[in-house]
């Protein structure tokens, strides 16, 4: 089995692991991210991608959905057991199933082939503007002393980044927690998709704004909520979302 490059292609800067079995794509993407000031390494199969992510500790993984050995969904699932790196999934299928499945296992974003190198680099730059490992160990000053927030039987602890429903822990991805954190910090405010993108993904987002809807759907499912009950997250018609009362 061929192993990914043992060293990064450039010194300094955020580290990007590019995973695709089409070597022309891995070379092209690696060249562009290196030109943008990032370090790059490559993997071509699912098992090699997991091994490389564990060994190289990348900041971002650009991950193809269709890989030999393990598909991108399973690779994403395994990487999430040991890394909080940003994961941007590549898919040749422009359909809702591939988007929902990829994001449900912890991917932060997706992009559909064919894509422009400029757009891909812009997506990488957008996710890297989000603070990595934001939590109890190194939280923003604004949330260090915040008490837990309660909405009925839902409790959100911004400092420890823990969520419980009825005392039972709910395991959210980093992106899912960030969305819930933003909504719950201003429970009376109705956020548009663009406002949530700006607060969670930072400004400069160039992807599909409806990625917010996909993540909100996952949050609702994990909380035992839905669009009809809307106990925890309400849909504000023509605007976006706000917190429910629980």
What's a quick, concise take on this entry?
With 246 residues, the protein is an alpha/beta fold. The chain is 35% helix and 20% strand.
What does this structure look like?
Residues 132-151 are annotated as: Disordered. Keywords: DNA-binding, Phosphoprotein, Transcription, Transcription regulation. Residues 15-128 form the Response regulatory domain. The modification 4-aspartylphosphate is found at residue 64. Residues 146-245 form the OmpR/PhoB-type domain. The protein has helices at 23-35, 46-56, 72-79, 96-104, 117-128, 174-185, 193-201, 211-223, and strands spanning 15-19, 39-43, 60-64, 86-91, 109-112, 149-151, 154-157, 162-165, 168-169, 191-192, 233-236, 240-243. A hairpin with a 3-residue loop joins strand 11 and strand 12. The protein is elongated and about 50 Å long. With 246 residues, the chain is of the alpha/beta class. Residues 133-144 have low confidence and may be disordered. The longest helix has 13 residues, at 23-35. It has 8 helices and 12 strands. The chain starts with 14 loop residues before the first strand and ends with a strand. The strands form 3 sheets. A 5-stranded parallel sheet has the order 2-1-3-4-5, sandwiched between helices. Strands 6-7-8-9 form a 4-stranded antiparallel sheet, covered by helices on one side. Strands 10-12-11 form a 3-stranded antiparallel sheet. It has 2 domains: 15-128, Rossmann fold; 141-243, Winged helix-like DNA-binding domain superfamily/Winged helix DNA-binding domain (Arc Repressor Mutant, subunit A), CATH 1.10.10.10. Helix 1 (23-35) packs across helix 5 (117-128).
């Amino acid at each position: 089995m061929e192993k990914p490059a043992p060293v990064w292609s450039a010194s300094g800067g955020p580290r990007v692991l590019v995973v695709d079995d089409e070597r022309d794509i891995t070379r092209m993407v690696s060249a562009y991210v290196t030109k943008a000031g990032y370090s790059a390494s490559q993997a071509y199969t699912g098992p090699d991608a997991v091994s490389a992510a564990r060994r190289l500790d990348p900041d971002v993984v650009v991950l193809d959905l269709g890989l030999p050995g393990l598909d991108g969904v399973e690779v994403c699932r395994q990487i999430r057991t040991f890394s909080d790196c940003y994961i941007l999934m590549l898919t040749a299928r422009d359909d809702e199933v591939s988007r929902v499945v990829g994001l449900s296992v912890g991917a932060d974003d997706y992009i559909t082939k064919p894509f422009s190198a400029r757009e891909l680099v812009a997506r990488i730059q957008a996710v890297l503007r989000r603070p990595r490992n934001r939590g109890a160990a190194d939280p923003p000053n604004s949330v260090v002393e915040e008490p837990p927030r309660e909405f009925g039987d839902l409790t959100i602890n911004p400092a420890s980044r823990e969520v419980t429903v009825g005392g039972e822990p709910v395991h959210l991805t980093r992106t899912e927690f960030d969305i819930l954190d933003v909504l719950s910090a201003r429970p009376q405010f109705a956020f548009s998709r663009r406002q949530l993108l700006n607060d969670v993904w930072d400004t400069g987002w160039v992807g599909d704004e409806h990625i917010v809807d996909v993540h909100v759907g996952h949050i609702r499912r994990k909380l035992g909520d839905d669009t009809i009950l809307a106990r925890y997250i309400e849909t504000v018609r023509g605007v976006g979302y706000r917190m429910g009362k629980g």
